[in-house]
Amino acid sequence: AWGSERVSSDGPVSPPLSLCIKTTKYTLLSFLPKNLFEQFHRFANVYFVFIALLNFVPVCNAFQPQLALAPVVFILSVTAIKDLWEDYRRHRSDKEINHMDCLVYSRYSKHQYMERFWKEARVGDFIRLRCNEILPADVLLLSSSDPDRLVHIETATLDGETNLKQRRVVCSFLDLDCDFDPSKYNSVIECEKPNNDLARFRGYITHRSGRRDGLYKDNLLLRGCTIRNTEECVGIVIYAGHETKAMLNNNGPRYKRSKLEKQMNVDVGWCVIILLVMCLFSAIGHGLWMYQYGDKRPVFDVLSPEGAELSPVLSAIYLFLTMIIVFQVLIPVSLFVSIEIVKICQVYFIHQDQDLYDEETDSHLQCRALNITEDLGQMQYIFSDKTGTLTENKMVFRRCTVAGVEYSHDANARRLAMYQDLVDSEEEDCTSHSGTLPRRDSVTSNQSAAKVVLRSQSTKSHRRTGSRAEAKRASILSKHTAFSSPMEKDITPDPQLLEKVNHCSSQMTFKRFHSQSLSQLPSDLTDIIDFFIALTICNTVVVSSPNQPRQKVRMRFGLKSPVKTIEDFIKRFTSSRLTSNSNSSSSSSLNRSSHRDCSSVLSSPSAESTLTKLDEEHHLGGPVGLEHAFSPVPPHTTEGEPGALEEGELRYEAESPDEAALVYAARAYKCSLVGRLPDQVTVELPDLGKLSFELLHTLGFDSTRKRMSVVVRHPLTDQITVYTKGADSVIMDLITLPSTDDSKGKRQRKILYKTQNYLNLYAADGLRTLCIAKKVMTKEEYAVWLRHHLEAETAIQGREELLFQSALRLEINLHLLGATGVEDRLQDGVPETIASLRKAGLQIWVLTGDKQETAINIAYACKLLEPDDEIITLNADSQEAMAVLLDESLHYIQAKFLSSDPSRSFQKDYAPAYSFPPPPPPSPSSSQTQSFLVHRLGLVIDGRTLAYALDSSLDEKFLAVARSCRSVLCCRSTPLQKSMVVKLVRNKLKVMTLAIGDGANDVSMIQVADVGVGISGQEGMQAVMASDFALPRFRNLQKLLLVHGHWCYSRLANMILYFFYKNAMFVALIFWYQFYCGFSGSAMIDQWYLIFFNLMFSAFPQLITGTLDKDVSSETLQELPQLYMNGQNSEEYKPYMFWMTMIDAFYQSLVCFFIPYCAYADSDVDLLTWGTPITTLALFTILIHLGLETKTWTWMNWVSITFSVGLFFTVALCYNASCPTCYSPSNPYWTMQRLLGEPLFYLLCVITPVAALLPRLVRGRCVSVYERENMWDVQVVV
């Protein structure tokens, strides 16, 4: 009865769940076992623990058991400390959140709301929320102090969107005349299981009377959102703690395995094989050595634990295990930890790059995947969204056509040109004044000056008008209202169209006083008024007051009689209606949703009364007279709020820039949106004043229908009117084709033909097009549709599909009003960035939902397509036609581009099997002849044809055509198609892919690619949250890939090879000694040096080099993008390089071993006195080797090398001085001190490294000459 239990439709009753969250992984008791368990998931850690434990076995131990544990304990401890610190930070964050206050209804004492911590609340508790409070859980809204039973929330913490979203009280609680009383609540809530879908919520609430009402996402307030513009609201907790949608979407950083890491793991496997071969060789050698003694056992023979003699075979087996311990350093245990440290440092320095900071959006680069930074230097294909990624996603109204007449808005084009001039001059002033911000008064003057028309400019300009100066001005003027910069909202009307609007208004005013029917108006004039009415009301825009943009303006204007209560509304006329779907996936006029969502339909409190009222009105003789529509009724205002606001002062909270652009365009013609309520939209028309449209339904936009509609009762005609706007590709098919028998029908067909031509011109001009249409329904038609719609609303199974079909039944037989052209301008630097990326050997595909002509025009503007490129356009109506098109395209490519080159057989490249081995990108000197790409050829394909191309029977043919083209442009593509294209190219061509986008429709594409990049744009943060890297602007991609990607790949590749070299070189020294000690597993190097050589003495310099080394400067990498091809071809780390490194390591170890061996031959030095110089020489050789590989020297390189040498000698001197009787008979006492007094030691320190590194010096010299020549060739090509 209290609602303390949540009933799931998919399972049994679940117990009340606390709001307490816990993101930590460990407790005090579980930390040690759980952390060790996680670390042992890494095979290298298991291997080294096994080696350390093996050293405790007496028959095969090589070192002191406690000493052998030191390296692995150190590695595990460092990782554990890092994990503990991260978990402690999570614990502090959890504690802070769980101890936030909220008002929870006390059921068992006092029956009032009491302050409690979030963690003390439970599922089923009633929570009272106030303005600006953060929601502690997913709460079902039951009551609101708002007179319209609305709550506005800000979801910036969930999706990054700052615009307000409406949520409404559950329909069965709308008619409460008093405050909600939790003690009288006796309903049961049934809802779906917790999930991470922010755009969906389904459930039912069953009352004691048996009445069942549906629950939708518009009734749910999500955890983490902020309450706005509502003094107080009450809700019941549905999902709490880790079951909330916000927590289910919080996946943390993404973890992937980079291409370089995969190749490194292969080489680690080779190291294991080399280790086993060396151990097996030593074991066989030891067995043969023991066998030669026969029955005469040597005096130094080691007996078994029982005191018996060991056979040669058993000795060989024991020695095999001993050699694994001795040679364990060959497997680089510290490599994995070093790589993690270097990657963290690389990410830090990338974050510090000021070129990747955008002042306009105040955003930095974000790295959400810490372990694939080197993949940025190996990309081969880039898949990009267009809107918001290549363009600004700042929609500017440019042109329109109404009733077949086109209005070019030349004055508005000149205003934008003037605005651009002011922005450019302001940026120059800012630059000349060292970037100081313009004064506030100068911003105001520039705003007014931007409206002055001084000169003209072609409407084909796609130059981005956004800038830092504009952003600062816009932030002041808009007061943080989205999509409200002066460029977007200050529209200059077309004089001809403005004159017609005024003329139509005067005609309607005239008929108002003479009580004449509006049907007598000319159809072209009524279409103009309906066109602007549709722009004004066919959206989900919320009106904000001027001084408090986050406070909704509540203004209720009279309909046919004042409406004060919900009962009055039901008695007069109540229909089931769709509440405004405020989520980005279903509300925007052109919002590119990733899935269909019609679940926002809500039934009214009394849907049956709608049909009853329709019947009554039908019997009374139809619509009410015009005197009711024009009767002046004073507006009803909420107490304490202004009764009237000037039109120019209102601001609009739009959910997408498309909606805002159209509403501001209508306002320019004095058709202004004044207020929006759940059941009413108020507009102000010239001469007619304020009119209130009764809002019956809102059919939100979805990616399948590609349109949105509103159903209203027109205040002038009392007719039920449907206004629809959407993509021209779908709206034009829904228009009723008039008959050609009369003049009116011929005129309508002419309008359709002209409108289609204008749409083609708009698309060719790069404008985003929308068609506007309407439909007038009779009461009978509406009643029939409403009955089916109510059935769909109340359906339990397949509700979304039924509502979708209901919308399709409504949106037919439309009457075309006109079309609009909105410009989305290119971001700054996009053409230059694309040009640089192409020079770098990257293939760029653009996947967009825009129509074909618009996408092609933008492609030309951003230099994706060049004027002299040949375009292959694939548009097919069937799969068979698509197969024919692909075959023709392949033959055309063969005939024109491949026939002249006999070495490149078409049949070989495009055989029926269509297998695609990964072709290496061309070298800079041969890019014109050896590349598999066909130059000066572009491919354009639309969404319907792409669906055929992605079929398994045609996908390889499609790839054969696409990979031969310089550019690929996929238009009208759905989110699913985008991800399928990326997956197809990645899997079939075996190439490295990067996907970049800014909206929710790009998420699937971003997640499928090897590297996903999100743009912090106008469409929220869905793409950013799903990405591996987040960028403020598309232009930042150039430096991220060409500079930081190149550096990260080069550094890590060289560091990995250096690790293999260093370990192999050091282990080989012991291996050579086995030939002189009967393969007994003895070592001439002190075990302290052997254990800590890689862990301490040689570790720091390589970390500094791996973090800071720069083989080429940033300026050179950006001036010569062709250098990026080194990473694409894996020039820094090819498979043969591992073996060359091993050969070099074994050669250097031979030199470091035998030169001291010859120097101390026939001398009386002990084993450690000979072994210590070998260790010292190996350290010097390894460090000098690193110095030769270092391209950029900094003071940190010098300090790290000096520190390593100093640390070695310090440890050696202290250790040798403090160990007089450690390992008899070979005693390390005073060894280093004696060596430092011998001239021979210093001579060896000079001769040995030079001899060891001489081949590398010669090779490095030859490579440097080749690279300089190659660099010159690149410059010549450029």
TrEMBL record:
Residues 577-592 have a biased composition (Low complexity). GO terms for molecular function: ATP binding; ATP hydrolysis activity; glycosylceramide flippase activity; magnesium ion binding. It is an enzyme of class 7 (translocase). Residues 1024-1258 form the P-type ATPase C-terminal domain. Pfam families: Cation_ATPase (PF13246), PhoLip_ATPase_C (PF16212), PhoLip_ATPase_N (PF16209). Keywords: ATP-binding, Endoplasmic reticulum, Magnesium, Membrane, Metal-binding, Nucleotide-binding, Translocase, Transmembrane, Transmembrane helix. Its main location: endoplasmic reticulum. It is a multi-pass membrane protein. The active site is at D385. It is found in: Endoplasmic reticulum membrane; Membrane. GO terms for biological process: phospholipid translocation. Its cofactor is Mg(2+). GO terms for cellular component: endoplasmic reticulum membrane; phospholipid-translocating ATPase complex; plasma membrane. Residues 452-494, 577-603, 623-643, 909-929 are annotated as: Disordered. InterPro entries: ATPase_P-typ_cyto_dom_N (IPR023299), ATPase_P-typ_P_site (IPR018303), ATPase_P-typ_TM_dom_sf (IPR023298), ATPase_P-typ_transduc_dom_A_sf (IPR008250), HAD-like_sf (IPR036412), HAD_sf (IPR023214), P-type_ATPase_IV (IPR006539), P-type_ATPase_N (IPR032631). Residues 21-66 form the P-type ATPase N-terminal domain. Residues 915-924 have a biased composition (Pro residues). ATP binds at D385, K386, T387, E659, F701, K725, R768, T848, G849, D850, R972, K978, N1001, D1002. Mg(2+) binds at D385, T387, D998, D1002. Its EC number is 7.6.2.1. The chain crosses the membrane at residues 40-57, 268-293, 313-337, 1056-1076, 1088-1108, 1136-1156, 1168-1188, 1195-1218, 1240-1258. Belongs to the cation transport ATPase (P-type) (TC 3.A.3) family. Type IV subfamily. This is Phospholipid-transporting ATPase. It comes from Oncorhynchus kisutch.
